[in-house]
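Subject: sequence -> structure tokens, single chain

Hey, anyone have a minute? Need the predicted structure for the following. Not urgent.
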Amino acid sequence: MSFDRARTMLLISGLVLISLVGLVAISRGVDRIEVIATLFFIPVFASFLFFGIRGGFLVAVLASLGYLALRIPSIRLLGLTPLSGQIAARILGYLGFGIGGGWASQQIKAALDKLAAQDDVDDETGLGNARAMIQMADVERARSDRYEKVFSVVLADMTNPSWGSLPVRKQKSALRAFGQTVRDTVRTTDHLSHARQEDHHLIGVVLPETGPEGARIAAENLRQLLTKQAGAEAEVRLATATYPGDGIKRILDMWRQLDSQARP
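Reply:
Had a minute. Here:
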């Protein structure tokens, strides 16, 4: 899960929870100022989620000043001493929430970013992602250099698949089934990857110990499979390259760009 998605889920959950606390306070006849003070936690919460410790601290200070402003009439009436404990507790609550929440948010972001950096699975299809494509090609290139062997890469650029007009949920199911079918069809030694670039579905295959002729056969088999799975309306463009050779660098440079765009 990306940090942006986790943050959105946390934001919605937090807003609902703080709002419920405010509603419960209203139903119990809690002082109106204290209800408003509870709702001040909402901007503090949003700030530390989006801006970390610094944002949480800054908005916590603003919330504290806002609470003090609300309490000025009571201070003038009763004096500061009777209210000092309540005011101090509220200010410490804002500051603790803003700073502590900001720290926790930054830790979660760092952990999720680290996981994303190590992730090599395409979420849509269950195949490898762009990073996996690059890694496997690098492994095969090192192997080819060491043992004087060849390997090939096939790139399929597919547009207008039949599932493109389906509702989002059905598209997800269709893509997952598509990935499984493609994986089951190729050799177990081949490495498959998928990436999306706008309305283009890019499927890459690393073919160990395969020369140009074998790559062309694999590419044609892949074309037939994609057309069968994605429907006759789908358009499939193919490219092949064999290492050693310059063509493979152009294909892998494109996958590196896709990987760079996918990084958080």
